[in-house]
Amino acid sequence: MKILTAAQMRRMDHHAIKELGIIGPVLMENAGLEIVRAILERFPQIQAEKVVIVAGKGNNGGDGFVVARHLFNRGARPLILLIGAKKDLKGDAALNLIMVDQIGIEIREITSPEHWAQAKRKLNDATLLVDAVFGTGLTKPAAGFYARVIEGINRSPAFRVAVDIPSGLSSDTFELLGPCVHADLTVTMAAPKIAHMFMPSEEMCGELVVADISIPPFMFEDPELKLDMVEEHDISPCFKKRKRDSHKGTFGHLLVVAGSRGKTGAAGMAAKAALKTGAGLVTVATPESCLPMVARSMAELMTEPLPETEAGTPAVSASGALRQLLQGKDALMLGPGISTHPETVEMVLDLLPRLKVPVVLDADGLNIIAQSPGILKSLKRPAVLTPHPGEFARLCGETNKTVVKKKLDLAPQFAREYGVYLVLKGHRTLTATPEGRVFVNPTGNPGMATGGSGDVLSGMLGSMIMQGPDIQSAVLAAVYVHGLSGDLAAEHYGEKTLVAGNIITYLPAAIKKIISTGTHPC
């Protein structure tokens, strides 16, 4: 599903109207009907509700007028508070204003703070309030009179439904510009917008419904639309039923380079997750003194000892041993718990340019290449990088604050420059591709913000890139299932007590769920 900016949505509307002949009043009618449908699902006895629609002078207000008309036809008696004068309306909004006026719906023109002071009392009696003041094109904070209107809407005890986007939010940023409506439900047109998808603006939207307003599907295939939300049907091809004549070699042999003294858990969890995600074979290469603890973590794992430093980390001489171990392997996962000891750093930087298999870099692997990110350009196969915001800040030389604020720009910029798949972890984990596309993951929950969760994901990624039809599909599938497993675990354990091992426990259930609901035959 595409995620659009305001400009992209305007271009889509313009194309539908001017080139396809889907006239503006039809799009507005479809939008209003979809909002009404969402309202009636939640308020089936609409005639019993006290409905107030706060409408602006633009097309957002026009959508509100359509809503008012159809609710009126179903027995409600809505009140429209028009923020402006009737004479100021134009185009499709003016056309729909005439209709609601003619059928006798009460409209109060609010052209001054004094008018609003009188009219807003109606908000206190309302049980259902429709916010149709501003649309998606807002670019500056609501101020003055409009700020008072937003404040009045938020003080109402009514259930608040936002048309397209809560008034006061800008669709093109997830930051809060200023005062904005805090909606219980937002019905957006054709596709979600950036503000709907990311915190803190996401929280202002409440439940999100994406309305079909008859924009033809082929219009969403425009290659310039580079921001997508991952859906289950996108990743189900990665989980087809296995053929009867499969063997362990069919599903790849992953080499995991992880762990150091005191950090053996990272190696164990990554390797377990790889096996649970379907890898045929997993070998863990870890410092020799760490090997017994890793080997005990799961009987199905194979292990190999690496030369180590006095600190119990991989020594520089481990590079040669790893090159030998990589013979016959299908992918490498490198980084969790290996440390940034100088010898370990030298080992990693010596190994990477020699790789002939795809590699997943996580944790200390990322911290090491942050010292010399240009080495990524020497890789023969695309790498998958899995930073959290702090690690990504080190990789791209920015502050954490800048990374969080500009992640939708920085992630694809980095992925294009270095030719990598970048998985920027967090709420709504982003996957940026070497082509500059960005995919937003919808699964996961705050309970997964716990030590080891990233190690689980890196193991899953290493496993999936050996099995998926292509690297992009495999990465999206691993990220989606990781979040889904966390969601299933949270249902059982609760978010507060969730630990990384619980995510591994629920991997089989998550994969089974996708297989059972997938569109691809088993």
Keywords:
522 residues, alpha/beta, 2 domains, ten-stranded mixed sheet, UDP-N-acetylmuramoyl-L-alanine:D-glutamate ligase, Rossmann fold
Give a description of the structure.
- The mean pLDDT is 95.
- 42% of the residues lie in helices and 14% in strands.
- The strands form 2 sheets. A 10-stranded mixed sheet has the order 8-17-16-15-14-13-12-9-10-11, with helices on both faces. It has a 7-stranded parallel sheet with strand order 3-2-1-4-5-6-7, with helices on both faces.
- It has helices at residues 6-18, 24-42, 59-73, 91-102, 113-119, 121-125, 144-155, 194-197, 201-205, 232-235, 264-276, 291-296, 318-325, 342-351, 364-369, 389-396, 400-405, 407-418, 453-467, 471-493, 500-505, 507-517, and strands spanning 51-55, 79-83, 106-110, 128-132, 159-163, 185-189, 207-211, 227-229, 253-257, 281-287, 302-306, 331-334, 359-361, 383-385, 421-424, 430-432, 438-440.
- With 522 residues, it is of the alpha/beta class.
- The radius of gyration is 27 Å and the shape is elongated.
- Strand 4, helix 7 and strand 5 (159-163) form a beta-alpha-beta unit.
- The protein folds into 2 domains: 6-221, YjeF N-terminal domain (Rossmann fold, 3-Layer(aba) Sandwich); 232-517, Ribokinase (UDP-N-acetylmuramoyl-L-alanine:D-glutamate ligase).
- It has 22 helices and 17 strands.
